[in-house]
Task: inverse folding
């Protein structure tokens, strides 16, 4: 009975996207933070699983509060991977772009907090990392003073990792969408 309602495609795609995100973000962490490869992959896996869990909890909390038309569209996409044609929701592109931006920013902050919680939990000291992570970028003035801003390398690494993994996932989704529409037209 449970198997009749399980969105297996959504679960499988979530698993595949998690694997992609963990691999990409782990490589970015390794390059930017100069941490050993195994530790980067473990950090990436932990914070990606944390952000995915929180994301699904938010989805299940918000979904009952949505208007009926949007709820039907959302559930039809999750279960059947298609949207129903609805004239009242003809201008859905700006909503999707705004939602994608909110998800990206929310994931960034969740993963940043997740990494901080993970370091506290593992009792890592931040003193050594803070001195190394605050590098000054920018143009040097006449008196060899740095003019620019300071970058927290952890936040920068998470931002770049998220940007890379989100880009790859969006490209896969777009390729899949265009492939489905191409075969459905023929």
Result:
């Amino acid at each position: 009975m449970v198997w009749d309602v399980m969105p297996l495609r959504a679960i499988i795609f979530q698993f595949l996207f998690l694997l992609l995100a963990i691999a990409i973000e782990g490589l970015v962490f390794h390059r930017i933070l100069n941490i050993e490869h195994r530790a980067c992959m473990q950090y990436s896996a932990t914070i990606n699983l944390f952000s995915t869990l929180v994301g699904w909890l938010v989805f299940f909390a918000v979904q009952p509060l949505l208007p009926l038309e949007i709820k039907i569209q959302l559930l039809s996409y999750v279960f059947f991977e298609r949207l129903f044609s609805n004239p009242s929701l003809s201008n859905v592109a700006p909503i999707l772009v705004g939602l994608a931006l909110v998800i990206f920013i929310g994931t960034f902050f969740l993963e940043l907090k997740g990494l901080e919680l993970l370091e506290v939990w593992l009792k890592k000291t931040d003193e050594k990392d803070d001195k190394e992570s605050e590098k000054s970028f920018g143009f040097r003035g006449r008196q060899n003073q740095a003019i620019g801003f300071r970058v927290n390398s952890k936040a920068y690494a998470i931002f770049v990792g998220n940007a890379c993994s989100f880009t790859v996932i969006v490209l896969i989704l777009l390729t899949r969408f265009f492939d489905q529409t191409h075969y459905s037209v023929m």
In short: The chain has a mean pLDDT of 80. The beta strands are 134-140, 146-152. DSSP finds seven helices and two strands in the chain.
